[in-house]
Structure prediction request, 382 residues.
Amino acid sequence: MRECHHELLRWLQPLDVAVHIDAAGNVRALYPAVHPDAPRLLIGSHLDTVPNAGAYDGILGVVLAIALLEELRGRRLPFAIEVVGFSEEEGVRFGSPFIGSRALAGTLDQGILNVRDARGISVRQAIEEFGLNPEEISRAQLADETLAYLEFHIEQGPVLEKLNLPLAAVEAIAGQSRLEFTFMGRANHAGTTPMHLRCDAIAAAAEWIGAAERAAHEVPGLVATVGKIEAKPGAVNVIAGEARLTLDVRHSSDGVRTRAVGDLIRQAQEIAGRRALSVRESTLLCQGAVAMDGFLIDEIQKAIAQTGSQPHRMVSGAGHDAMILAARVPSAMIFLRTPGGVSHDPAESVAVDDVERAIACGLYLLDQLASSPEFYTRTNRA
Ligand SMILES: [Zn+2]
Prediction:
């Protein structure tokens, strides 16, 4: 991360910006406005990534923000631009995502400092070892005169490629439910137990997995995933007595999502009951959907059209820093097409033409916002 910061600072240096690293490890670079006391627009994304990652998730949004400053070539706008490179968005090291953006939004609770990584190093120690002061995290909060937050990010999915479109405005970030289900049957001998006398936990789980997949197919925009299954005792010649599996359900409407989760819980009970098994479930995560700002979505659509592309609006199935910032300031995202829909993998890529178009879109957007009276009235909403 230190090398990453070093590289960014090298690119930022010729741009006449005031740079600092805040106490949560975020890179902050302020490009001044025409007037010194003008409000500011935040543009950013995250600098961290996952193990065995690609080269674009997160960092592309920060590089694009810097590219926009370069393209302004010293031209001042009525608002300042603060480029932010967020720390710890993925939550890989401490199991707690969005540490950097929560520090900006002021929603990071003090307990986070005591959370430890796999080697027993706490967030507090990590911040100190990086040369920062964890006691100053509250000072990382975004300035009162912040107009909006804007984030460029790769789509990380196949939708734009399928539509043959380079860019889209994100209209909402989907809410998520994560649950764990345990089907409890009776382990027994695979050879001597007739089929009609079994309480097979894996067979019940399998029936339910199929039902979950069919249910998601029937509701537009709904995605449901069983990503993990564990069976006990786990032997080739033993009927499984217990099957434990996870469920991940996402949708842009919280109502649709919670109804789907309720239906799947009822189906699990029905399947278990019919097979003389029992089932219990527990909720691991229940996170509401976050709408992006309507005014900014419209302006992004206009800017995409200015580049000669067909505008498109879509829901993000993945979480992003923008959903954390949206609690404090009007926020919006621009997605770039992801070849093959591949992300969180070294094969992750972007097309140079699409990046060029994203920069053009960003410049149109900056000019639109600069001349929009409505944009400035929005500052008080923060
Ligand atoms: Zn990301």
Observations:
- The chain has a mean pLDDT of 96.
- The chain has eleven helices and 16 strands.
- The CA atoms of residues 179 and 283 lie 4 Å apart.
